[in-house]
Known about the structure:
CATH class of the largest domain: Alpha Beta
Largest sheet: 8 strands, parallel, barrel
Amino acid sequence: xxxxxxxxxxxxxxxxxxxxxxxxxxxxxxxxxxxxxxxxxxxxxxxxxxxxxxxxxxxxxxxxxxxxxxxxxxxxxxxxxxxxxxxxxxxxxxxxxxxxxxxxxxxxxxxxxxxxxxxxxxxxxxxxxxxxxxxxxxxxxxxxxxxxxxxxxxxxxxxxxxxxxxxxxxxxxxxxxxxxxxxxxxxxxxxxxxxxxxxxxxxxxxxxxxxxxxxxxxxxxxxxxxxxxxxxxxxxxxxxxxxxxxxxxxxxxxxxxxxxxxxxxxxxxxxxxxxxxxxxxxxxxxxxxxxxxxxxxxxxxxxxxxxxxxxxxxxxxxxxxxxxxxxxxxxxxxxxxxxxxxxxxxxxxxxxxxxxxxxxxxxxxxxxxxxxxxxxxxxxxxxxxxxxxxxxxxxxxxxxxxxxxxxxxxxxxxxxxxxxxxxxxxxxxxxxxxxxxxxxxxxxxxxxxxxxxxxxxxxxxxxxxxxxxxxxxxxxxxxxxxxxxxxxxxxxxxxxxxxxxxxxxxxxxxxxxxxxxxxxxxxxxxxxx
Length: 529
C-alpha cells in the first residue's frame, strides 16, 4: 500500500492553499483540475509572481517553523515502561519513592563543572528577528530555571552597532546584551550561556571576543542543524543594513550595491533582501586547529552541534568530539525548528530524528566499548513535552545527558509576553481571564518565584520569562512523574529498557526491544520458579 508522507504545493507555512482542497493529486499536490483563470493560491501559483520568496516560510520575523512531513518512525512509536518493583536512586520505600523526590539535575563537561537543574537545553537561537525580539524572556527564563541557552550564529554580524576593526569584532551591543541578560539572572551557578559560531562568526573572531571581553566560558562549533543543510539565513527590509551585511562579507541577494538592484528596490519590485551564511568545510585538521585555538583563547568548555547529515558525517562528529575531548555533542534530526529555512528543504532533506539518534547511540557505544572517551550527548529534533524528553534520554542512555528544544521554549516566551501585554492593556481574552487578571493569578509559578527571588525582582521580570519558567516547571513535574513510575529517581538511572518499541520497524531501527519481547528472560524466571 502506498502512503504519502509529504504534503506538497499548499501549506500554512508558505501562506498557500489549493483551490480544490478536497481533491488534490497526492504526488504533485496540485488540484485535480487546474483551471485557466485561477488567481494562483497554491505554491506553484504564488511562485509564478513572487518566485524565490515562496521558498521560505512566511511571514518572516514573527514565526518559527518546522516540517509537516510524516516520517515512517517517530518517537510516538515508543512507549515508556513502568514497573511495580524496586527503585533506583532512592530507597525502595513508599514514603520516600515519591515523584517530588526525583532529582533532575545533571552535571557534565570534562571536569563535571557544568551543572543544570533540568536535563534540557535550548540548542541555538541566532540572528532572526523572532529570536532577537524574544531574547529577554528566553535568557531570563532560562537563567531562573538553571538550564542552558545557546546564542546562535550571526548575532554579531547582524548587529549594526557592532564595532569591527581589521575584520575582527572589538565591541558589540546585541551579543553583550544577550550574555548579560543571562548572567545577571543566573542563580547559584546553574545553567550556562553558550556562544555558537559559523564561518562568518569565526572570521570575525566572535568566540574569542565573547571569551575575553564578556567572560563566556562555553563556546560551540556549528556544522549544521536539522532544519536545513545550508548556512543561516534571514531577510532584511532595510537597504542600508543589507549593504552593511554585504560589506561584512555575507552573501546578500540580490546584490545591494548594484545600482539596478537599488532602483528596483526603491521602485518596490521587491521588499526584502536575503542574507545567507557560507557552508562550513569540515576537515579533521581544521577541526583540531579550531579546538586548539579556542582553548588557547580561554574557552573552558567546547561543544559541537551537527545536523541531520548522513551516517559518515555523524561518525565524524562522534569521532572528532571523542578524539579532541569536547564537552557536548548536540545532534539535530531532520524536520528542524527555525526562524527561516527553505520550506521544501526542511521537509525533504536529512536523517529523521529516530534514525539519526539510533545511529548516534550505535556509534557512541562502539567507541565506549573500545574504552575511548565519548562526549556527553544532546538530542534535538521536535522534542516538546516530558514524554519526549524521557524517550530521548532512554533511547540514547547512558550517553545522552540533555534534550535540545527551541521552538517550544520560544512559544512559551511569546505566549507569556503576549499575556503580559494583554494584562497591561486590560484586554485579556476570556480563555486567560478565567484564571485571573494579574500575573500572580494567571501564572501558576508566580507565588514560588516571588518567594524565591523577592517582590521587587519578581515585579521586574518580563512575563515572557515567567512563561518560559512556568512551561519548564510543567515539564519538570511531568518528567518526575514519568521517572517515578519507571522507578528511576535521577536521569543517570534511565536506561534503554525503560522504553519499548511499538512496531517491529521501530525496534529494528532503534535496537529497542519490541513491546512483546520486553522482559522475556525475567518472565521465564518468574514463571518457572
